[in-house]
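To the wet lab folks,

You asked to see what we're planning to order before we commit. Fair enough. Below is the target structure as tokens, and below that is the sequence we designed to fit it. If anything looks off to you, flag it before the synthesis order goes out.
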């Protein structure tokens, strides 16, 4: 018999029980005698029966599936986040459908509607700029949505982040305390509020409080890639008055800055100190190893997924806006 044609009826007949009993076993209902449960499980194994998740979803209105939309699974940063989501989803018996959006608004909204069409029970969303159109779509969603490492303009949608402005402020103050007065910034695209609204403001506030003026020549806007870090290094080293330290918005761009400086004969950290952001595995792979702001990506993913399970199960949620702690991991790209 073809396994895909085997139904709950066949299992019930094989085990000599009612279809309701088989259903209870398949759905993990505890109200089944151990001996009966064993008979049903043996019949399932003998017949090779696979419960149809879609059919079960139609009956229970739940598919125990969660949609996850991330910009790029190839990025170490987002891979760590996805891992945190996956582990907690597994713990709570949810399956995941993972989609790449390339941070393209049309694609993000299309994926959102595709996942809703697949009857997911909830969605974890990671993106850059959250527009009014995004918020309208999120509000129209029949299932809960949680944003991870993504900020919502009006705090209308639940989010899990760190305090980005404070994190950059702390990093710049550290460089100032080490005697740096010429501190450059390599940022991701400023349209993303995490960069434009929070990280850039943290940089500016720390400079102002330290009595240092903001030099536009010391600001380079990259696109999160290693190559844009190389470009930033070239730009800074072509200046008459070169920066003595650089804060970089992601570890990958920071590697570009370090290598660009080294290619031009500079010693990191003696000639130029560098601090990155994220504390991905890259930070320990580069030489000198990279001092970086620890954004706990795995934890952000895990907490976002746990928050989503609370909404999906109608549990009480104390705080819809979760801020996780950050710290600075000192390594060799900054002076002692």
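Sequence we intend to order:
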């Amino acid at each position: 018999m073809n396994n895909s044609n085997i139904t709950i009826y066949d299992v019930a007949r094989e085990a000599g029980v009612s279809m309701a009993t088989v259903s209870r076993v398949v759905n993990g209902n505890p109200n089944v005698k151990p001996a009966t449960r064993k008979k049903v499980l043996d019949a399932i194994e003998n017949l090779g029966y696979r419960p149809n998740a879609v059919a079960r979803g139609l009956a229970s209105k739940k598919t125990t599936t969660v949609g996850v939309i991330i910009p790029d699974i190839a990025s170490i940063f987002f891979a760590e986040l996805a891992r945190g989501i996956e582990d907690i989803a597994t713990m709570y018996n949810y399956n995941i459908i993972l989609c790449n959006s390339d941070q393209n608004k049309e694609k993000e909204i299309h994926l959102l509607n595709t996942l809703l069409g697949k009857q997911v029970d909830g969605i974890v969303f990671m993106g850059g700029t959250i527009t009014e159109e995004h918020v309208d779509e999120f509000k129209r969603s029949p299932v809960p949505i949680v944003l991870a490492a993504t900020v919502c303009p009006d705090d209308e949608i639940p989010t899990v982040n760190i305090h980005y402005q404070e994190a950059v402020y702390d990093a710049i103050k550290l460089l100032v305390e080490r005697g740096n007065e010429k501190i450059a910034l390599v940022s991701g695209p400023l349209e993303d509020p995490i960069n434009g609204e929070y990280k850039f403001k943290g940089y500016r506030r720390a400079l102002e409080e330290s009595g240092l003026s903001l030099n536009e020549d010391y600001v380079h806007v990259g696109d999160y890639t290693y190559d844009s870090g190389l470009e930033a290094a070239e730009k800074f080293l072509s200046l008459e008055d070169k920066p003595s330290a650089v804060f970089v918005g992601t570890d990958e761009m920071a590697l570009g800055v370090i290598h660009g400086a080294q290619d031009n004969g500079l010693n990191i950290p003696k000639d130029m100190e560098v601090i990155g952001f994220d504390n991905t595995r890259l930070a320990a792979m580069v030489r000198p190893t990279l001092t970086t702001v620890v954004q706990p990506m795995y934890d952000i993913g895990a907490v976002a997924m746990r928050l989503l399970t609370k909404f999906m199960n109608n549990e009480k949620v104390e705080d819809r806006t979760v801020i996780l702690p950050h710290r600075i991991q000192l390594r060799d790209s900054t002076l002692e």
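Structural context that might help your review: The chain has 13 helices and twelve strands. The mean pLDDT is 91.

Thanks,
Computational group
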